[in-house]
Design a protein that fits this description.
Blueprint lengths: L10 H14 L13 H9 L12 H8 L1 H4 L19 E2 L13 H11 L2 H11 L12 H6 L4 H9 L2 E2 L6 H11 L8 H16 L5
Parallel strand pairs: 1-2
Length: 210
């Protein structure tokens, strides 16, 4: 079996680390930025503690149910861009459905996965859980426009401009390596951090630990 290609990190990665460090040391940064996760950010926003939040669309139905006074004033904007003439290239996540070849009921499992990803259930997921559809045509449906009033098109454009996360069985190790290297964000030395990250990713590629 051929070995995996070496990881590549260059000037764009250093620039990304510079953006992280610059934001973390600016007056715009939440004092709890280095420890906050998506749900802590959501709760601070719903509690009126912050005016802006970078998060996933699930926060919209959450605020509608838990913080109606905040919800009625909520708006949406594209993910912040680095270059003024280029759209943000956000990473795409998702709930990926698969059927193991070891399943004793593969046909039934495949039927269940197909049902879950069907248009009807995508609409329910958007309405109840704030999960954007994966089928592009649904963004023109009245149900999705109602679920995301005024920003259904923005969501579709964000997905169109998005990029996939690394496809690798070592994704969890890669994610941990990035988190540990770039934390805390206000102490990041961009060039040194990316050099260290490259070594860690190279170790992960070879099946080792960083």
């Amino acid at each position: 079996m051929p070995s995996a290609p070496p990881p590549l990190l260059g000037a764009p990665a250093v620039r990304a680390a510079e953006v992280i460090q610059r934001l973390a040391t600016s007056s715009a940064a939440d004092p709890a930025m280095s420890n906050n996760k998506e749900d802590e950010g959501r709760l601070a926003f719903q509690g009126g503690g912050t005016s802006f939040m970078v998060n996933y669309p699930f926060v919209y139905p959450s605020a509608k149910e838990e913080a109606p006074d905040v919800f009625k004033n909520m708006g949406a904007a594209p993910y912040p861009r680095v270059d003024p003439d280029k759209p943000a290239r956000v990473t795409l996540g998702g709930i990926n459905l698969g059927v193991t070849r070891f399943s004793e009921n593969r046909e039934l499992a495949f039927e269940a996965a197909t049902c879950l990803r069907g248009p009807e259930n995508q609409i329910v997921n958007a309405e109840k859980g704030g999960l954007p559809p994966t089928t592009e045509s649904l963004y023109d449906s009245p149900e999705i426009k109602k679920a995301y009033p005024g920003f259904a098109t923005l969501l579709r454009d964000s997905i169109d401009n998005g990029v996939p996360r690394p496809v690798t069985p070592a994704y969890s190790d890669i994610s941990l390596a990035i988190q540990e290297t770039l934390h805390p964000p206000d102490s990041v030395d961009p060039k040194a951090a990316i050099d260290a990250l490259l070594k860690r990713l190279d170790a992960v590629k070879d099946g080792g630990i960083y």
